[in-house]
Design brief:
mainly alpha
């Protein structure tokens, strides 16, 4: 039977850092996005859900773009700190890879907040970086489940599979010459599948972070040590 983790040890502090920073990042991004969506909803109604999520950061047309962009910067910073803690936990080489990919995603989120869609060329680059980062992150998490089941809970695996499918779809739809997607035809009343998939990817990333936090918390309670 594993011994209880010492709550005064540096290892416990790292567990706590990972959990708190991930939850803080997910909470901050959820609040920022919700406020921005609500403000946009007052102007265009339900059409806001059929527009790309990154348009919420448009300083010209989005009423509370500054809140949206600031929330991304804060959330990305929290993810960077949490991935640093995850890397230092040394749960195995796969967790190191996930921490590095998570660091990539966190930095991309910060840069999306710094370079919203008003800075079109820069925004395309950092958005593509975020997309590829999440793709790699989900792929590594799925591989972790197959190789070290004890480190990847079933909910984390399921969310990773959904995120991987979503990211794959977006990569397929991306125009690699412009690093952008084909504009949606909102005026013709058509569903914009790219926008819906981007919204799904945004939400699944937040859920992935939350589930990862609870998975790390569970591992800390069990004082898990990988067999490596």
């Amino acid at each position: 039977m594993a011994q209880e983790l010492d709550t005064h040890s540096p290892r416990y502090d790292l567990h706590r850092l990972v959990v708190l920073m991930i939850l803080a990042g997910a909470f901050t991004s959820a609040i920022g996005i919700s406020i921005s969506v609500w403000a946009e909803y007052q102007h265009i109604g339900t059409e806001v859900f059929f527009r790309r999520a990154d348009y919420l950061g448009d300083y010209i047309h989005s009423p509370l773009a500054y809140i949206y962009n600031l929330s991304l910067i804060i959330a990305g910073s929290c993810i960077l700190l949490s991935m640093y803690g995850l890397f230092r936990l040394k749960l195995g080489y796969y967790s190191h890879y996930i921490a590095i990919a998570g660091f990539w995603v966190g930095m991309s989120i910060i840069l999306i907040g710094v370079f919203p869609i008003n800075y079109l060329d820069e925004h395309r680059i950092v958005s593509t970086s975020f997309l590829m980062g999440t793709f790699v992150l989900y792929l590594l998490t799925i591989s972790l489940r197959l190789n070290h089941k004890g480190l990847c809970s079933t909910p984390l695996f399921i969310i990773s599979v959904l995120g991987f499918i979503s990211a794959t779809g977006l990569i397929y739809q991306l125009d690699w010459q412009t690093l952008d997607f084909t504009p949606c035809l909102h005026g013709q009343g058509e569903f914009c599948w790219v926008s819906l998939n981007m919204w799904f990817q945004t939400n699944i990333t937040m859920f992935w972070c939350v589930v990862l936090a609870f998975t790390v918390r569970k591992l800390s309670n069990e004082n898990y040590t990988p067999d490596m």
